[in-house]
Each structure stands twice: as C-alpha cells, then as structure tokens.
Amino acid sequence: MWWKKTIILVVFLLIGFSAFAQRTETGKNPNPSAFTIARLKYGGGGDWYWGSSAIPNMLKFLKENTNIPVNEEEVRVSILDDDFFSYPFLFMTGHGNIKFTDAELERLRNYLTCGGFLFANDSYGLKEAFFREMKRVFPDKDLVELPFSHGIYHCYYDFPDGLPKIHKHDEKPPQGFGIFHEGRLVVFYDYECDIGDGWEDSQVYNDPPEKREAALKMGVNIITWALEN
C-alpha cells in the first residue's frame, strides 16, 4: 500500500535527516517522502562504485512505472556516515572482496534489524566475500535460496521462474538468496544474474531491450517488496 511506503520512508529519513541536509552539495533539502537508492561504499578492495548509470536508470524506471515519489539522484553512503539511517534501501555491487570493520558490522546489523533493507548485486566474483561478511553480521543466520513462489518475484511484475538471467558469467542458472529477521526479508542477494548491469545504459553491454526491461522490472519488485514488507 502507498501509505505504508510513505511511513517507512519518513521514519528512516527523520532519523538522519539533519546530518543529510548538511552533506547535500546543493544545500537544498530533498523531499523527505521521496525514495532514492543509496549505493553502499565498503572496504576490502571491491569496486563498490561499479556501474555509474545503473542507479539513475533504475530510479527513472521506478518513477515512470509506479506511484512512488522518487528522487532520481544517486546517494553514496558508508555504514558509519551520520546519515546512514536516512536511507531505507541500500544497493551493494561490485567484484571481489568485501571487508567490514567491527563497528560497521554492529551498525549494519542495527540498520537491518530496525527496518532497513540491503540488495546486493553480484557483478561477478562477490559471493565468497559477501557470504563471509553476512555471517559476521548475522552469526546465527544463513543466506537461504528463495523459492520461485516467494513474493519478491510476484509483488509487482510476475517472474514465475525467479530472477531473470541478464549476463551469462559462469553460465549457471540465476539464484536469489536472502536473510530473514523475525520473518522479514532484510537482505537479498542475486547470483549469476547481474541485475545491476541490466540497469545500465544500453550501449554499456549492448544487452537486448527485453533483458534490460526484465532487469528493471525485477528491480521494481525488489524495491517495492522492501518498502511494503
């Protein structure tokens, strides 16, 4: 429901809004009810910045195809930033290693258990490090594969076979993994799919239009599921 989206967004924005206003380069406060995607900056050597056109394109598609008010500017945030809790939806991507400090582990755990959501897009080679670090965040939880019947695949657009296959990578079938806290999905990780690359400008990978559309539509599902549940 629309009002549920708004409540979730406003609660998170109010937590860290003051700090965010000080950091805004334009000096103008954003619409506190507008949704944006916060790209997570992380240590360890992985290229967290991968895919510069992905988030703006996803936000544009979200704005054009849903009733969610959207701020189309990408935000980049670190876990220890003052405004970290201002953003209900984190996007994490890249290749290679990830490493959280002890302070980051605790703060990310608090963020996720208090209503935040992390979507991790494996551009290629992220799985080992991501699974290791998530086990450090939640020692008592495991990343489990979601069945095709899970609502994240059906909440806005219908994906009866789960995640769409965007890039072949190791030519394995795509898989979606999640972590649940008190019955709520708080982390979603795509493997052998690379939705984020499908969000990028068409000339970057020359993906056919139907693949890019599938990636963007799955992005809408992930976002709306995160905001409504």
In terms of per-residue confidence, which ranges show pLDDT below 50 for 5 or more consecutive residues?
1-29
* C-alpha end-to-end distance: 10 Å
What's the CATH topology label? Rossmann fold
| Number of E-type strands | 7
Beta fraction of the residues? 15-25%
Order of helices and strands: HEHEEHEHEEEHHH
Explain the overall architecture.
The chain is of the alpha/beta class. The protein has one domain: Rossmann fold. The chain contains 7 helices and 7 strands, in the order H-E-H-E-E-H-E-H-E-E-E-H-H-H. The protein has helices at 2-23, 54-65, 102-113, 127-137, 195-199, 202-205, 209-228; strands spanning 38-41, 75-78, 89-95, 117-124, 144-145, 175-181, 184-191. The protein starts with a helix and ends with a helix.
What structural keywords apply?
seven-stranded mixed sheet, 229 residues, Rossmann fold, 38% helix
SSE diagram, text form:
Blueprint: H1 2-23, E1 38-41, H2 54-65, E2 75-78, E3 89-95, H3 102-113, E4 117-124, H4 127-137, E5 144-145, E6 175-181, E7 184-191, H5 195-199, H6 202-205, H7 209-228
Parallel strand pairs: 1-2, 1-3, 3-4, 4-7
Antiparallel strand pairs: 5-6, 6-7
What is the structure about, briefly put?
The protein is of the alpha/beta class and 229 residues long.
